[in-house]
Amino acid sequence: MAFAARTWRMNASTAASYPVVGIADAEPIPFPGLTDSHSATHSLQAVMREHRYASWRTALSSVFGIYLVTDTRDGRHYVGQAAGAGGIRQRWTAYATNGHGGNVELQGLDPSSFRFSLLRVFDPSTPRTDNDVAESHFKNALDSCRHGLNRN
Q1: Which of 70, 90, 68, 74 is CA-nearest to residue 135?
Q2: Considering the domain boundaries, does residue 15 fall inside one?
Q3: Considering the domain boundaries, does residue 83 fall inside one?
Q4: pLDDT tens digits, 47-84
Q5: Contact present, 79 and 144 (Cβ < 8 Å)
Q6: Domain count across the chain
Q7: How far apart, in whole angstroms, are the C-alpha atoms of residue 131 and residue 136?
Q8: 42, 39, 89: which is closest to 64 by C-alpha?
Q9: To 10 degrees, the CA torsion angle through 46, 47, 48, 49?
Q10: Count H helices, E strands: the chain?
Q11: The domain spanning residue 65 has which CATH number?
């Protein structure tokens, strides 16, 4: 015996007669901590735009640091640094906005395969030279200039 599929729909004029009782906010997503904050590009976009990730944005704004972008298709790495106003949040917002953050080697790639991770965080009062040394260390350790996505 076959059953006919049922569908339900409402016309706009009918829907307009129903009162809006309330609009629920999405539940906040707790920030996992600086050492556990990894994000794929699609979720990075949500973190930078949606209200439920407000605690993430606050935390990422409060620190500078060294971050890693991994192209999950081939495993190549890009090591970057965020040491300006707005900290990690400002830098990662650029990636969420355009997919490449202005990095030439990332511009021709599909950002949907990127994964973002923090390698090291710094207090904003840390001297810029300490950030530079840490960035160079991770570029060397991951060999991201020769076998990755860093040009320098």
Answers
A1: 68
A2: no
A3: yes
A4: 999 999 999 999 999 999 999 999 999 999 999 999 98
A5: yes
A6: 1
A7: 9
A8: 89
A9: 50
A10: 6, 4
A11: 3.40.1440
